[in-house]
Specification:
heterodimer; A: about 375 residues; mainly alpha; B: about 525 residues; 12 strands; elongated
Chain lengths: ~375, ~525
């Protein structure tokens, strides 16, 4: 397989992190200080990324997550844990497919059944996953400049349309630092900043090694973190008190745009912009699940893509009854209780085991040498 | 090399048969295999005191004057009779002292004799020798160099390739007078035995690519190559794709420019269209003329071409999507106007668009196939079908006519016809998607298209280079055409990375000349 360049890795990280996060008002519990919470959450996520995920990568640059788990946890525990990650990746993908489907249904196609829309989404994703990791990362490289350019244009238009009232942000830290921290942890670590655990599946495909990858990953992480903070800030400044109660705040903000009677209803295009991010996110998870499953079962690419894709499609059709339920389960339950297990607990455990084994090996080695 | 063996395998035993030392046997063999038609010329003569000889050739593919000169040189030698005594071997005498025509090779087998004659050579047989001489008297009527009928330019060279491979290569050699221009020949097609030339610049092209071209050409197993289109389908990456994976052009200057950027050219005898490989998506939006006129207008035209490509692919589907699903996107007065036009139209927008697009495709095909003499008929009928009359008949709305006409015009803007064709095909898929899922359908289509494009390769080079994978230096010649003095490096992925095509230029010095002058220099 063709290897991935650093530029492609960086593009994918940015697209993946921006993904669906600009759809929501993140950390809405913190009220006016939500943007501060996002910033703090980003720093927390950075610690997790640098201290755990990249540390694991640094120790074992040529293995992916599943290989590591199987190497270090033995047959049964390893199998269970790997299966857990396959399901976790699938579930993440399912949530994104559902989001994508529901939003399309709400914003663009109110009369089309959601299941039909989700079938199309899954088919698109399956085609991309089937094409391989390198193709997927090249797509990201191609589309990132376009996405960023449109976002920047959108922000400029919002600014010029006189929609921003920065009074909405004042006073800063009204409810104190505690509410900011509470909103940031663990919620923001789980979504979106802790999600880079997925890249433990991809880092090994990058053609350069070691420090270059770490540098690019952190740079792109910071860029996306600041980008999400900015989006959050704009939503708060534009919508004020309304922000937390609106389904898709950024969309709402764009519907207010009215410049010279030309740029009036650009929201379908903004919807497409948001969807591009969601699409890359769900496909990345889909691909992660397929890679993991293939490593565990030695299935052929075709069958793995079909099995995982089928699972994602049926999961997205039947797990949630409605968009609201999906958001509720996601933000109140998953973020606080379930995702941290996979994003923080297991990686930390893995890191400790790997480190311990490495130490132990070195000690044994040293002992042998002295003997 | 391997190919020639394969080609001959089917002839099996015949190939092994050596020429007979009896001249009559050889002549009989030629008559058996090639027939005794009026174009098979057999000129018998007597040399060196009654020693029998014969000159065999095929009229029409040999040059009459050269054949006459050949015969004449043999007869005049006979008249003088001077060399014979000194030269013991008449065969050697013929070869080294007598024949006044260039390009001679010796033949051993009967099969070679046929092949040589069919290639337009004249064969000299001498009684008592089981060898023969093939003399290059090639010629015959071919179309001359004319202005290319496709890919026309306002400014720039007006000559185009013709059918004869020798003409085409001579055009190329006069453009690039460098010993680095390497041309290698092979014969492909067991029946047609078509000459195919592979041209590349040594030191600029990557050896990997050149070898790959050779490997793929050698792997072709077919009995006929009638146009470079055959070769194109045989050698590009085996993948179903509406997009062209090789570039074809009638213009020698385009081939020369490609060679100088490290592409490999494949020239096929009998076809005025030469191929260039590897190629990327963005190459199809460059016209040779971009480099002959000033860079600012060239850049502007490139942008126009990309816009046209997307318009030709997406405009009807966007119209369908917006009028069917997202009416709120239109400004209110326009929405009312379109609604009023569509009032009397009996079909949904998707059917309306399909009818009109298919009508246009039929008109277009008719325009290409129809005899030139009745050309005016189609424009009259076309204007009726695709115009005001159709609107008045209540079949379609006026807005749809505009959309379809604009789409049609836009598809002609793309310099490469084959890229325009792929946009045409994709247009229909997009229309169906837009008709069923609106803007979301279009986006899904584009995403699948992007996946497809990202997965394509042309001779190992990813199709979307230099955007993904990003090659920064090449960006000077994608969406913009940078001035010549700013493009000191060759595009990196085709050629060896970083080779420069010219020394650093000073803007001031170059601004007084025409920008093109620096390019011909062979700075490596």
């Amino acid at each position: 397989m063709e290897r991935i360049s650093l530029n492609q890795l960086g593009s994918m990280i940015i697209l993946f992190l921006i993904g669906s996060s600009s759809l929501f008002l993140l950390a809405s519990d913190a009220g006016k200080d939500a943007w501060l919470a996002v910033f703090v959450g980003m720093l927390g996520g950075l610690a997790l990324l640098w201290g755990v995920n990249l540390m694991i990568y640094r120790i074992a640059p040529n293995s992916n997550l599943i290989e590591l788990i199987n190497d270090h946890f033995g047959k049964w525990a390893g199998f269970l844990l790997s299966m857990g990650y396959v399901i976790y990746f699938c579930y993440k993908s399912i949530r994104n497919v559902r989001e994508f489907g529901d939003l399309t249904s709400i914003l663009l196609l109110p009369n089309t059944p959601v299941s039909a829309i989700m079938l199309i989404i899954c088919a698109m994703a399956a085609y991309t996953v089937m094409s391989g990791v390198d193709v997927f990362f090249r797509m990201a490289e191609f589309i990132l400049p376009i996405v960023i350019a449109i976002y920047v244009m959108l922000f400029l238009i919002i600014a010029f349309a006189d929609l921003l009232q920065f009074d909405n942000l004042l006073p800063v830290l009204d409810k104190g630092m505690m509410s900011v921290l509470k909103a940031a942890f663990p919620g923001l670590i789980s979504f979106p900043f802790g999600e880079l655990i997925l890249f433990l599946m991809f880092w090994k495909y990058v053609e350069q090694e070691g420090n270059d990858i770490i540098r690019v990953t952190i740079k792109c992480y910071l860029f996306s973190g600041l980008f999400i903070t900015t989006t959050n800030l704009l939503i708060l400044a534009g919508l004020g008190k309304l922000a937390p109660v609106i389904t898709i705040p950024l969309m709402q903000l764009t519907t207010f745009i009215e410049i010279a009677k030309i740029l009036e209803r650009i929201d379908p295009f903004v919807a497409l912009l948001l969807f591009t991010g969601v699409y890359f996110k769900l496909t990345a998870y889909y691909m992660g699940a397929v890679l993991a499953l293939r490593y565990m079962t030695k299935l052929r690419q075709k069958y793995a893509v079909l099995i995982v894709g089928g699972g994602i499609y049926f999961g997205s059709s039947y797990i949630f009854k409605s968009y609201m339920e999906q958001v509720r389960i996601g933000f109140t339950l998953n973020l606080k209780y379930h995702f941290p297990i996979f994003q923080i607990a297991f990686p930390l455990l893995l890191l400790i085991v790997v480190l311990f084994k490495k130490r132990w090996n070195e000690k044994v080695h040293a002992n042998e040498e002295t003997e | 090399m391997k190919k020639q063996n394969n080609g001959a395998d089917s002839q099996g035993s015949e190939q092994a048969n050596r020429l007979s030392s009896d001249i009559e046997d050889n002549i009989r063999y030629a008559q058996d295999t090639l027939g005794t038609g009026p174009d098979i010329l057999i000129r018998r003569l007597h040399l060196f005191q009654e020693s029998k000889a014969a000159v065999l050739s095929i009229a029409g593919i040999t040059d009459k004057a050269s054949v006459n000169l050949l015969v004449d040189s043999m007869l005049s030698e006979y008249r003088e009779q001077s060399g014979l005594a000194r030269e013991g071997d008449p065969f050697q005498a013929l070869l080294y002292r007598m024949l006044a025509v260039g390009g001679i090779r010796s033949l051993e087998t009967l099969y070679d004799l046929d092949v040589a004659m069919l290639e337009g050579l004249s064969v000299v047989l001498l009684d008592g020798y089981d060898r023969a001489l093939a003399v290059n008297t090639g010629g015959g009527e071919r179309r001359g160099v004319e202005e290319p009928s496709t890919q026309t330019v306002v400014r720039g060279p007006k000559e185009g390739f013709a059918e004869s491979i020798l003409t085409n290569i001579s055009l190329l050699r006069t453009k690039i007078k460098s010993p680095n221009l390497r041309i290698e020949y092979k014969i492909i097609g067991q029946q047609t035995r078509t000459t195919v030339a592979v041209a590349y610049m040594k030191g600029i092209s990557e050896d990997k690519v050149v070898n790959e071209v050779h490997r793929r050409l050698d792997a072709i197993e077919t009995d006929s190559i009638l146009d470079s289109g055959y070769i194109e389908e045989f050698i590009h990456e085996k993948k179903y794709s509406p997009f062209p994976l090789l570039q074809n052009t009638e213009r020698p200057d385009a081939i020369a420019a490609g060679l100088l950027e490290g592409q490999v050219a494949i020239i096929v005898d009998g076809s005025p269209f030469a191929l260039l490989a590897p190629v990327t998506f963005f190459k199809f939006f460059q016209s040779s003329e971009d480099y002959y006129q000033s860079y600012d207008i060239a850049t502007f035209l490139r942008v126009i071409r990309f816009v046209s490509f997307f318009a030709s692919m997406l405009l009807p589907s966007l119209y369908i999507a917006i009028t069917t699903f997202h009416q709120e996107m239109l400004p209110t007065p326009l929405l009312i106007s379109i609604a009023a036009q569509r009032e009397g139209v009996p079909f949904p927008a998707i059917i309306e668009a399909m009818i009109m697009e298919l009508t246009f495709e039929i008109l277009r095909e008719a325009g290409v196939r129809m005899p030139r003499i009745i050309g005016s008929a189609i424009s009259i009928v076309g204007a009726l079908v695709l115009g005001q009359a159709a609107v008045q008949a209540g079949l379609i709305s006026a807005a749809m006519v505009i959309v379809v006409s604009f789409t049609a015009i836009a598809s002609f803007v793309i310099p490469a016809v084959n890229m325009g064709t792929s946009a045409r095909l994709i247009r229909f898929a997009m229309m169906i998607l837009a008709g069923s899922f609106g803007v979301f359908g279009i986006m899904a289509g584009l995403m699948v298209l992007l996946t497809h494009l990202s997965g394509l390769r042309s001779f190992g080079v990813p199709y979307l280079t230099p955007i993904s994978p990003l090659v920064k230096n090449n960006l000077k010649d994608v969406f913009v055409r940078a001035p010549w003095w700013a493009m000191n490096k060759r595009p990196a992925l085709f050629g060896k990375p970083g080779t420069s095509r010219q020394g650093k230029q000073e803007k001031k010095a170059i601004s007084s000349q025409s920008g093109k002058s620096g390019e011909e220099e062979e700075g490596q």
